[in-house]
Amino acid sequence: MTEERITIHWDGEPLPARQGDPIAVALYRQGIKVQTRSIKYHRARGPQCFTGDCPGCMVRIDGIPNVRGCQTGAQDGMRIESQIGTPTAKNDIFRIVDRLFEHFDHERRFVRPRIVRETYQAIARRMAGFGTQPTDSITTTSGEQIETGIFIAGGGPAGLAAYNAVRDANANVLIADADGFGGQLLHTPRSVDAGPHGEHPGPRLAQNLAPPERERIDGTVVGIWDDIAAVLEETPDGWAIHTIKPDTMIIANGASENPAMIDGNDRPGVLGARAARILLNRYRTPPGDPLIVLDPYREGQAFAQEAQDHGLTVRIVDEAIRITGDPAVTGVDTPNGHVQATAVITDSGLTPSPELGRQAGIPYTYEEALGGRTPLHRPDGSTPIPRVLIAGSAAGHHTPEAAIRSGRWAGQTAAGTPPKAAAQTLLSEGRFEDDEEGALRRVWRTA
After folding, report:
1. In sequence order, what are the residues at sequence separation of 6 or more whose Cβ sits closer than 8 angstroms to the Cβ of residue 220?
2. Are 185 and 156 in contact (CB under 8 A)?
3. Local structure of 312: helix, strand or coil
4. Tens digit of pLDDT for each residue in 229-246?
5. What are the pLDDT digits (tens) for 77-104?
6. What pTM value is reported for the model?
7. Within this chain, do residues 317 and 170 fall inside the same structural domain, yes or no?
8. Which of 92, 149, 179, 230 has its Cα between 20 and 30 A from that of 268?
9. Which of 64, 95, 127 is the C-terminal boundary of a domain?
């Protein structure tokens, strides 16, 4: 496959990149892990998720602030700037603030007299915040008002399976996703059993299930209210917000990675296991070498094997005291001494993304085995809210096999052809752990 090589500019320095690769990936590939700073103490930050869920890659692109670098494709000539840091995130002179106030309660000390308080507040306001006002204009255009039979929010394995189930029933359908259709399939190189869709490597399966342009929107579902979904899309004429009025809605907006509860978990070079798989498998960029994988579970175990298959040195650490490095990762302190690494991969599991489900009115419960907050739903995807279904990781079905089956059941239910033995098939073919099965049964009984 031929890749177009381009040049982007990072804080004034020209760098090579691949056309369309996310900015955060292009920078990471060039060894740039420090891409921003924290807004208060100016601690070094870098991307940790590559899915738009963390602020570690917020940058200024062509004069527009607060752009997520992991969700923005590189284009030739792009001007990218680190928006927190003076003069840049790498050489930020205000990083000394973290050292000065480490053991100093500045919130109480700078209160009186008034002139000291006002001077301190003026300086703090100047140092904090996410960037400055845009210097270039942001072009907008009018969105469309669309009515459809079934609308699917999310194009991961569950969303794609739901889409194909609806199409098999010859029902009217529209699906939206901004990060390419396929979700976790795009970074899953192993063969995935997709039932009637066959068994294929994840990327190939995503290609097979992808919807045609006429039935999809390459945009983000940003809200749901009164049975209407709002979709933000970047069109050739500018940014537009479309309003979708469906008869039935399927929510399949995935899950977010949980951070590891360990000292140093926010250092540049610390990645979630899913983020590491995205970087390695989807964008062919090793997160580092040697690597440490902390207490791996499902995603961490998969990444460790995939990294070894790529010839990377992987060290499994089951017990760690802290992650070290200044500013970026240098290793991990363990009870048995220090272990060196250029990246640390954590695996604290996934949590169903609740934003759209809550906006649609779906009640949630707490099931630790499924990632925490979990929507009440039935095996066929239906919820206590009429004409609103939920599937895939958004419902706690985190494996590709489980997401595909729950998406297919939701699509069939939405199309008026509810599945038979949905619970039994989902549990037997979804690759769930025992505690996950028990949690799902409790959720289904409650719903």
Report:
1. 176, 177, 178, 231, 232, 233
2. yes
3. coil
4. 999 999 999 999 999 999
5. 999 999 888 899 999 988 888 877 766 6
6. 0.92
7. no
8. 179
9. 127
